[in-house]
Amino acid sequence: METKKTKNVRKQVGVKETVSLLFLILFILNTSLFAQEKFDMEKTKAKYASRDYVYGKLPESGFNYYKIAENAYFVHDNFEHMVFFVTDNGVVVVDPVPGVSPYTLKLIPQITDKPITHVIYSHHHADHAQGAYLYPKSAILIGNETMTEFLKAAEDPKRPLPDVTWKDEYVLETGGLRLEFKDLGRNWHSQKDIIMYAPQQKILFAIDMFHPDAAPWIHWGESSDPDFAFQLPRYLLDNYDFEFVVIGHERIIGTRFHMEQYEAQIKDMKKIVFEVAMSPEYHKLLEETTQRYHGSAAHYEYKEKIMTAAELGASKYIMNWAGKVRNVRLNAVENIQTMFMHMIVLDPPIKEMQKMKGNVITH
Q1: Can you say how many angstroms the Cα of residue 213 is from the centroid of all Cα atoms in its chain?
Q2: How far is residue 194's CA from residue 185's CA, in Å, rounded to a whole number?
Q3: Side-by-side strand order, sheet with 164-166
Q4: How far apart are CA 248 and CA 76, in angstroms?
Q5: pLDDT tens per residue, the chain (363 residues)?
Q6: pTM of the model
Q7: Rounded to whole angstroms, how far apart are CA atoms 122 and 144?
Q8: Are strands 81-86 and 116-120 parallel, antiparallel or unpaired?
Q9: What is the spatial distance between Cα 160 and Cα 131, in angstroms, rounded to a whole number?
């Protein structure tokens, strides 16, 4: 017969078993949740590097964010983005975009209680640098030496001068993060552009270089050196092992596929430019243009010859790429115009020009 004492012991054992079981369930749930939160690169590409995400609705907050590595976060509004890394020592912010920085500053405390230790300039343009003043003064501000000269000239309190400047190459190592900086010697967009690379995360930063899943931006990204802009994708694909490329605009994260797609557009546009320059159709139009203008109207004649080539080339490019990338028609004429002027008029490659009969057009 069971005594009262035995019953109490059995009840206590039952309670202990129940508590142990609850702890076990909680542990399993936490482990499961942790596993779900673990970064999945392919899943990220499928969801956030796709055209569908470009047209998705933003949250009411006006921004969204997602991981692009276990410790790297991509923050964006409708059309701009920036990235921050959470390290063992603190947070490293890259490219202080003014429109997105307030969201980033709001988000960081939700992710980590670590302080912001570094803020990094990509280049001096206001749309990428004017958020720098918002960050703690204790954070180390890093910028290229030549870029700093443009900041000095601007005298903009929203773009404070860097605490650390560098020339040619630089490496930031902090809290387990390695970030490599390189000045390629030529520029694709501003008067001083730089490449940044996080080798552990396989993230490349080439700000304002191109737009993922889109036609080239107007005049090849308002390029300061279009000829170099045409060469850059191949250089980066050959020299950097990256999965994601951060370019500063769009909601979607760029990938290696997007850069290959962009390079394919460049190759096709080059082919089109030379086909147009050598075509009987274009030469016939050149003759008609020359006959129509008086000798004193050289400026008008030159402009019409350039625009004729641009319009012929743009129609071919649109036919080849419509439906494959976004915004194909938007800047087609301007981009063919820029490429034609550089590759046919200003600095033509000799081997290609030898295939052509005589000079097509002179400046």
Answers
A1: 11
A2: 9
A3: 64-69, 72-76, 81-86, 91-94, 116-120, 140-144, 164-166
A4: 9
A5: 555 555 554 555 455 565 455 544 444 444 443 334 689 999 999 999 999 999 999 999 999 999 999 999 999 999 999 999 999 999 999 999 999 999 999 999 999 999 999 999 999 999 999 999 999 999 999 999 999 999 999 999 999 999 999 999 999 999 999 999 999 999 999 999 999 999 999 999 999 999 999 999 999 999 999 999 999 999 999 999 999 999 999 999 999 999 999 999 999 999 999 999 999 999 999 999 999 987 779 999 999 999 999 999 999 999 999 999 999 999 999 999 999 999 999 888 866 655 555 555 555
A6: 0.86
A7: 8
A8: unpaired
A9: 10
Q: Are strands 140-144 and 164-166 parallel, antiparallel or unpaired?
A: parallel
Q: What are phi and psi of 325, to 5 degrees?
A: -135, 165
CB 248 within 8 A of CB 207: yes
Alpha carbon 245 to its chain centroid, in Å, reads 6
CB 188 within 8 A of CB 225: yes
